[in-house]
Amino acid sequence: MSRVSALAAYRNLLRSIRIAFEGDVATMNAARFEARNNFEANRDLPQDSKVLEKSISKANEVSKFLKENLVQGKVTDEGKYQLRIHEHTERGDNESIKQPPGTRNTLAGVKCCSAS
C-alpha cells in the first residue's frame, strides 16, 4: 500500500462522514476530527508495512459502514423518530427473516446458538 491509497481512503472516509452525518454539524466535526487523528497517528508507518495495509483496510471498512449502514433519527413533535435514509443506505430484502428458526445462518456461516 502506498501514500496514494492512504489518501484515497482518507478522502473516501471524509465523503462517507459527510453523507452519514449530513445536517448534524457537531457529530460531523467530531467524526472528521477522529478520522484526522487516526490518520495522523499512522503517518510515519513504512510504505509496505502490514500495519499500514491493515489501517487503510480498516478505514475503507469504516467508510463503507458509515455510508451504507448508519441511519440517523430525529425526534418529531409527536415523539416519534423520523429516519434519514439516503440513496446509499443498504436495504435488505428480509428474506432471511422469513426462514424458519434453525435454518438461518450467521455471518460466519454457522448456526447461531439459539438455532440449535
Question: In a nutshell, what does this entry contain?
Answer:
The protein is built from three helices and two strands. With 116 residues, it is mostly helical.
Question: What is the secondary structure topology, with strand pairs?
Answer:
Elements: H1 3-20, H2 25-41, H3 50-69, E1 72-75, E2 81-84
Antiparallel strand pairs: 1-2
Helix pairs in contact: 1-2, 1-3
Family: Belongs to the complex I LYR family. MZM1 subfamily.
Pfam family, one: Complex1_LYR
Subcellular location: Mitochondrion matrix
The whole-number mean of residue pLDDT values reads 84
Q: What is the element string, with H for helices and E for strands?
A: HHHEE
- Nearest-angstrom radius of gyration? 19 Å
Give the amount of beta strand, in percent.
5-15%
Q: Number of DSSP strands?
A: 2
Subcellular location: Mitochondrion matrix
Keywords: Chaperone, Mitochondrion, Transit peptide
Protein name: Mitochondrial zinc maintenance protein 1, mitochondrial
Main location: mitochondrion
Features:
116 residues; mainly alpha; two-stranded antiparallel sheet; 3 helices; 2 strands; 7% strand
Q: Could you characterize the architecture of this molecule?
A:
This protein has helices at residues 3-20, 25-41, 50-69, and strands at 72-75, 81-84. By secondary structure, the chain is mainly alpha-helical. Strands 1-2 form a two-stranded antiparallel ribbon. α1 (3-20) runs antiparallel to α2 and α1 packs parallel to α3 (50-69). The longest helix is centred in the middle third of the chain and has 20 residues, at 50-69.
